[in-house]
Amino acid sequence: MFTVVMIVVANLASTAVSLSLAAFLGFGWLSGLVDRLVHVSIGLLLATALVHIVPEALSAGLAPVALGWSVLLGILGMFVLEKLTLIHHTHHHEGDGHDHGHGHDAQQLGRGAYPILVADALHNFADGVVIAAAFLVDQPTGWITALAVLAHEIPHEIGDFMILLNAGFSRRRSFQFLLLSGSSAVLGGLAGYFLLAATKGLLPYALAVAAASFIYIALSDLLPELMRRSALRRSLPEVLYVFGGVGIALLAMRLEP
Questions:
Q1: How many of the other CB atoms lie within 10 Å of CB of 133?
Q2: pLDDT level of residue 103 (50, 70, 90 thresholds)
Q3: Of the candidates 207, 245, 208, 247, which has an alpha carbon nearest to the alpha carbon of residue 223?
Q4: Among 167, 196, 201, CA closest to 89
Q5: Phi and psi of 126, rounded to 5°?
Q6: Of 239, 220, 4, 24, whose CA–CA distance to 128 is shortest?
């Protein structure tokens, strides 16, 4: 029962903190910190996946070949899900130079706002399952994983905020709808706990897929933004932020009892 409570608390905290920080950073004068946070989360996600979750999957009894296949299928599955999600919305924005009447883009995005929320709910549900799997290994692993989820959710939620605002939602309504979709993380956590607790043999595979999702998010969604810049003056601090994220993950692991 204590593990269930921890899973619920971790998912609630991850959702509430990431949404609150996303609103604060996205709407406030600290919006310049968002890029830095993205760079930190790259290192945090990769280190958590490769140095912590993958070894835990091996320790839980997963054979190396099965681990490789699980990570591969997890990455391919994330790719397919993202392609399906991209079908339902557009990255077109007002004022991009395309010749549309005023409000045309908001109308287009308005029709796509609800599929975005559905996709966000499914994404958060999957995050909840990932956190549940980590807590079933041990409590420190659960909290490290929740921290990694929180870190990558902040830039993601800022993007969702911008989409909803451009679709005509108010700030308050955007926050309420994203909080509602974010609550699916708790459902994912509970579903993951009861499924994995009842079928212990699935836990190592769930950990491998969790590692795959972190690797995919870091290398596909976050790293390409960093790679577009080439000036050394800007690149060097970005690289240091990535290594800072790795350092945070390693420090959290060192603090485990």
A1: 31
A2: very low
A3: 245
A4: 167
A5: -65, -40
A6: 4
Which candidate, 21, 15, 22, places its Cα nearest to that of 162?
Answer: 22
Record the tokens describing residue 91, joined without a space. 């990255």
Q: Are 171 and 36 in contact (CB under 8 A)?
A: no
pLDDT given for residue 60 in this prediction: 87
The helix or strand, by DSSP H or E, that contains position 172, with its residue range, turns out to be: helix 171-182
Residue 205 CA: distances (Å) to CA of 37, 62, 251, 252: 29, 7, 26, 23
131, 207, 213 from 135: Cα distances, Å: 6, 11, 17
Contact 134, 207 (CB under 8 A): yes
Residue 182 token pair:
């974010």
Least confidently predicted of 77-81, 151-155, 186-190, 229-233: 229-233
Domain range list for the chain: 2-254
**What are the phi and psi torsion angles at 229 (to 5°)?**
-105, 140
Per the confidence metrics, is the pTM higher than 0.90? no
Helix 33-47 to helix 139-166 angle, to the nearest 10 degrees? 140
pLDDT, tens digit, 9 for 90 and up, residues 201-212 = 889 999 999 999
3-state secondary structure of 38: helix
Provide the 8-state DSSP code for 230: -
